[in-house]
């Protein structure tokens, strides 16, 4: 009987393994498919590589924003190969790490539960005192759309394109859809977005969302509340039919590719959790503790994006690590997630939500004060020629404690870190205003939003 | 008798006025020259405008770093007019503010002390219970060099150039010299630096300094430990003679302009402080409290860059504000500067020093541990094609409290804010390691440096 069996060797599973092996040699990690991570292979890294080329090109094409007239001719034919070159650099670093692990710890195969302490892999059974389930997720599939064959892309396949497409329809407007659609647009691809919702990415605040849409509408064709009615392959093109929301007409566009970015599906169903408890067949409603990721009262922890509302890499790694501590101390399960929520979309400008979102606070009927700062006249943003968007900060109206923020400004990722770190210190408004803000920086815009909150709270005293 | 007389209406004086006027109408602010700030007119803002054009152009000229072949023809003839256009936008915002102040509060003229509570301006005397001296500084002058007339520039005059020069010799390698020299180089100007020292800008750590020099040496001609022996005007050129440090030969270069960026001189001497106490004629050694900026035990506070080792705008504003509180509570002088030191040079990559510098810790024989992370293979920096430099973090070897950091990486300003805010929380290493670091960000490189410090402290346990 093993001390711990880890199922899945992605960001969460690898983190769990590295933590576990510090404490016990009596462990097993089982993985199906490549022994690298979604993040490095098809997620964070290749998307950020594409975005980095896109942003640099967009900046070069808008040199007039900083007083430079330019005649620019570009050849983007190496962009996709650069994505893969560095993607391979990142995945091989992961694989090198995995290759250094003991062979006896690793099994290739699909695992499924027989009972609460027994799993089966490749027709063999293994038992453990505790389990860490880190099986991850995959892009949501749509069989109807798959009829167009390799013209239907997902985030799993798009980075394999030899060349940038001429045109693409992106279905979805979540984080992945938003990042890829905008990056492709900046790289010269004709992009049309179809979104079931009327939102772009993660911002829930009406004001921040409207700033995002204002900017996106200037660049991209977006059909909100519209899903294609059919995709058909016609010679070199894919015909995308849809009902125009405004005039209710059936319309169509022809594109080279379609990207299905409608979300991701957990791979938990492969584990046959119903063999532990029959009710666990409903994998969307598993009794999982949000802060320990424990499954009911079992020594079983479900970590990473197999079961989460915040599929981000740093949380997956963190969950992998603390779940090991909880496996080893079971039945005491004390190690809890303490990170404040932090989500970033690497659009241009970037979108970030830190702590509680506007919608979460509204839904909870929390009495909160919103401080806002526009960046259209923010000093440093103006200097950079990137004076777009704004920031909202949320404070408890009584205690003045920081609750969260939604951000849509250039380099939002850094302001988001400042606020996330402050949340972890339970900082209040006065403390935040007493921090140094160097001049001239984007951080000064954050202070403007804090001062806005302060003036409201003061006047309501 | 006024409650407070403020002398100087720059960043510190304006901040002081705004704080003072909240409490008393019985104030006076006296200013010589323009009623805007060094920062907005000839400092932070125009330099950052120039740098922003320079960085954008440099990024466009290195598109191959992100997989894009480009043929780029640029016309930079509007760069200087853009600098002035936005500079004027920023100065007019300051002036608009000043114009809204009561006329009876403002006097144009040069002030000097007659005794500790009396000053003279335009042959008239004024008395006050307390004084805030915010007279600022000016570029250091050199009469010998001034013989080349308008071909000798300072940071006061360089932004008035109609066009970028073809070539320039920059004398000095401090923050201002470094920022301007590199920006001009990126804008296509032929730049040669002459530096009395063997250092570039503010980094005191041998390792960080060597990373900076490695990068600068690839771009610019730098003559360390060399001051020009003569500057002479020859028709359209300035001939700069100097002794070559390596072969001891007399050599010369011809340039269009020379920038004297050898430092700044306090304007305190105009105030005749010796009429308060004769020893105050030695303005370099005034008895000023570092945290309150009080002059000896007088109700006199010297704020901003008239007397400081850290001439940065956010500290000037801060000092202006707290000095008002101390004027009003005098003889109780309790309001102290609590900001941790934070200095940023907006080079590319940026240089930042936070808290105690390497040299300060060495000089104080502090027992400290240095954590280092190179950014040459840092994930996000690699993705951005900006994988240059590194970061050092300093921790007390006993308490593991954060002491400071020196940084030379892209977007260092943001990591510097994170660390400065952490210093103000007196964070220790363990607390810093428990913060969220989103993936993939430059902040993860900071964590790498923290882990390096951790492994050293752990192994020395």
Automatic annotation (TrEMBL), chains A, B:
Domain Pyridine nucleotide-disulphide oxidoreductase dimerisation: 343-448
Keyword Flavoprotein: yes
Cofactor: FAD
EC numbers: 1.8.1.4
Pfam short name (any one): Pyr_redox_2
Single GO term (MF): dihydrolipoyl dehydrogenase (NADH) activity
Gene3D superfamilies recorded: 3.30.390.30, FAD/NAD(P)-binding domain
Keyword tags: FAD, Flavoprotein, Oxidoreductase
Domain FAD/NAD(P)-binding residues, every copy: 2-317
Keyword Mitochondrion: no
Uppermost EC category: oxidoreductase
Family (UniProt): Belongs to the class-I pyridine nucleotide-disulfide oxidoreductase family.
Protein name: Dihydrolipoyl dehydrogenase
Organism per entry: Acinetobacter pollinis
């Amino acid at each position: 009987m093993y001390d711990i069996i880890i199922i899945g060797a992605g960001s969460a599973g690898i983190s769990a393994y590295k933590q576990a092996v510090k404490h016990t040699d009596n462990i097993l990690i089982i993985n199906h498919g490549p022994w690298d991570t979604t993040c490095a292979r098809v997620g964070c890294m290749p998307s950020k590589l594409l975005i980095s080329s896109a942003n640099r090109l967009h900046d070069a094409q808008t040199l007039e924003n900083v007083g430079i007239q330019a005649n620019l001719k570009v050849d983007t034919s190496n962009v996709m190969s650069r994505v893969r070159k560095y993607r391979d650099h990142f995945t091989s670093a992961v694989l090198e790490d995995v290759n250094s692990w003991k062979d006896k710890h690793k099994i290739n195969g699909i695992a499924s539960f027989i009972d609460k302490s027994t799993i089966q892999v490749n027709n063999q059974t293994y038992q453990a005192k505790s389990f860490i389930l880190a099986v991850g997720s995959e892009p949501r599939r749509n069989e109807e759309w798959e009829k167009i064959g390799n013209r239907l892309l997902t985030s799993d396949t798009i980075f394999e394109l030899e060349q940038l497409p001429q045109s693409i329809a992106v279905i979805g407007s979540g984080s992945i859809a938003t990042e890829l659609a905008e990056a492709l647009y900046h790289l010269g691809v004709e992009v049309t977005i179809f979104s079931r919702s009327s939102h772009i990415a993660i911002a829930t605040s009406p004001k921040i969302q409207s700033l995002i849409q204002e900017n996106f509408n200037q660049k991209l064709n977006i059909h909100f509340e519209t899903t294609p009615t059919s995709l058909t392959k016609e010679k070199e093109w894919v015909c995308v039919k849809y009902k125009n929301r405004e005039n209710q007409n059936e319309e169509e566009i022809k594109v080279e590719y379609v990207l299905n970015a409608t979300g991701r599906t957990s791979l938990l169903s492969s584990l046959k959790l119903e063999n532990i408890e029959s009710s666990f067949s409903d994998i969307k409603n598993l009794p999982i503790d949000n802060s320990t990721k424990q499954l009911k009262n079992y020594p079983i922890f479900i970590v990473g994006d197999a079961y989460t509302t915040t599929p981000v890499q740093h949380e997956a790694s963190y969950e992998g690590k603390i779940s090991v501590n909880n496996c080893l101390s079971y039945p005491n399960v004390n190690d809890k997630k303490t990170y404040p929520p932090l989500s970033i979309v690497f659009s241009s400008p970037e979108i970030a939500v830190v702590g509680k979102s506007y919608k979460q606070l509204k839904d909870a009927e929390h009495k909160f004060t919103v401080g806002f700062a526009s960046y259209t006249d923010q000093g440093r943003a103006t200097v950079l020629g990137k004076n777009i968007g704004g920031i909202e900060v949320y404070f408890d109206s009584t205690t003045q404690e920081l609750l969260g923020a939604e951000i849509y400004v250039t380099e939002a990722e850094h302001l988001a870190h400042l606020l996330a770190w402050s949340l972890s210190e339970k900082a209040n408004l006065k403390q935040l205003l007493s921090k140094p803000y160097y001049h001239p920086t984007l951080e000064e815009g954050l202070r403007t939003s804090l001062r806005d909150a302060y003036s409201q709270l003061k006047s309501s005293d």
